[in-house]
Amino acid sequence: MPARPADAPATLFQRSVGEAAVTVADKGGRVTTPTVRQAGSAKLRFPRMAPGSDSVEALILNISGGLVSGDRFRTEMAAEAHTLTVATLACERVYRCEDGPAEVLQVVRAGEGGTVRHLPQPTILFEGAKLRRRTLVDLAEGGGLTLCEGLVLGRAAMGERVTTADVRDRIEVRIAGRLVYVDAFGLTDEVIARASGPAALDGARGVGLVLHVGGGTADTARAALDGANARWGASTMGALTVVRVLAPDHTSLQDALGRASVALSGAPLPRAWQL
Fold it and tell me: Over 50: is that where the pLDDT of 1 sits?
C-alpha cells in the first residue's frame, strides 16, 4: 500500500449527534403517555410497567456504540408530576479521542410533586478518552431528585489500564431557581499519575456520586453503604444529600451507587441494572 503523502488533508471522520427528551405530565392525577422526542443516535425505550403504577421508566440508548472526538449527546428529562425514572440500557463508553472531546449535556427538571430518578449505569473511560459532560438540574419547590453518576477507568476483566484521559464533569442543582449545589470534577493525566495521593483517586478505578432531594438523608445512605466494598462519604446540606464513592472496580462502584440510590429514593433500581 503506498504511503500517505505528507501534505495530504486530514481525514474527516463522521461524528454522531444524539438528542432525546422525555416529559411526564399530570393529567388529572393520572400518569399519561409521556411526551417523547428523539433524534440521531439517541433512542428511548419504555419497559412495561405494572398496571396502576404511578411512575414511568425510560431507557436511553446510544446506537452509535460509544463516544469519540466531536460526538455530541443531549438528553432532557422532566416530571411535571409523578415519578420518572431514566436509566441507560448499558454503560456508555468514551473511546480514545484523537482531537477534541466528546460533549454530553443532561437537563433534568421536576415540578412540584414530581420526581426524576436519573440513574445511568457508570460510564467507562478508555485510554485517551476526552469528555465534557454537564448536568443541569432545575427543581421546583417540592420537586424530588435522585441522580447518580459514575466513571470507571477501563475494564479490569480485559486487563485495560487508563493512563491518559481528559474529563471535565460539572453538575449544577437549582431549587426554586436558586443555585444550591455545584460539583466540578476533573480527571487529567496528572491526576491519574498521582492516583495514590489523597487529593486524587487514591488507587480507585471507579468514582461516582449520588445526589438526592426529598426523603432520605445522609444517615439513610450511611446505613445502606455499611459493608460495601468501597470508600464513601455522605452529607446532607439543607434539602440536598450528597454521597461520594471511590471503588476498586466497576462492580463495587455500581453496587455502592445502587445501594445509596435505593435507600435514598425508597424505590428499586431500574431493571436494566440487573441485566
Answer: no
